[in-house]
Amino acid sequence: MPILPLFLILFIGVPLVEIYLLIEVGGIIGALPTVFAVVFTAVLGVSLIRIQGFSTLQKAQKSMDQGMLPATEMFEGLMLLFAALCLLIPGFFTDAVGFLLLVPPLRTLIASKVIASAALKSRFSGNKQAYQQGFRQGHSGGDYLDGEYEDLTPQQQHERNQDRLQHQHIIEGKVEEPEDKSDDAKR
Questions:
Q1: pTM of the model
Q2: 65-97: pLDDT as tens digits
Q3: Is residue 152 a part of any domain in this protein?
Q4: Is the torsion defined by CA of 40, 36, 20, 29 positive or negative?
Q5: Does residue 112 belong to any structural domain of this protein?
């Protein structure tokens, strides 16, 4: 999607929707209750963000303790930051978006989909011309290593290591200490 329409929607469309909703809700329940509702959702949202943020941080630490990259948790943290921004902006539409991002299963689903999409795009995108030139020059130009391997049992590994130890070449001789040049300098 081109970036200009996105900015138009973000900076013109969202404020227009917010103004419309504020006028409509204000007409139904009154101006003062509308202002109170906007302030209340901001305060409630910030307190919920704090709780969700600590929970996400704990999940990220748990993933790192298990030796895994906490990609989903990091993206959830970004969504929580966006949710906090939405909840602090006065209005009902942005509050609804912010509160939706506070639902952990929905947030995890969005994070998983975005991460999977990004991984797929990064795997199949890139500079196609440079990649093809790499094949013409005899190497892949990527993160691939061509090689061979053998799948050995622990017993086979031990025997191979013993063979290598028996065929080591040991150089015998004596170690000579270098002359101390500081004695020459004193003379």
A1: 0.60
A2: 888 888 888 888 899 999 999 998 889 999 999
A3: no
A4: positive
A5: yes
